[in-house]
User: Fold this.
Amino acid sequence: MFDILVYLFENFYHHEAWPEQDALAQKLTDAGFENDDISDALDWLRALARLESEAFPEGFDLGEGFRAFTAAELEKLSTESRGFIAFLESARVLTPTLRELIIDRAMAVEVERVEIDKLKVIALMVLWTRRGNVDTLILEELLPEGGPRHIH
Assistant:
């Protein structure tokens, strides 16, 4: 699934949006991705879109309070991943709302533990879909190692 998310970012970053679900699924199949992975990725993206519009409406603010991780979050998110979330928030890249979206989407992936490389992809997708544009310095930090570095 993560390879598909990176592929979508690399191929649709400069576009307003990606194609309709059926056309996108066909493009992903043509690119060589497995049907199960495509389905998981598209479900994950649909849930992200639903969360953005329903759970955190425009103008909603979680405030400046302290965020403690639940036992389930502590178990699923690696120490490095939790530290990276704190770093992004302290650097004012993440608002509390964006932080919650990232944590929610990280908890939704079907892996036992979300390590830093996977969390960076999740953060990249949340920032991209929520903001539409990702600062170049942040983009460099979020792109997977060995990924393209020419996207501006």
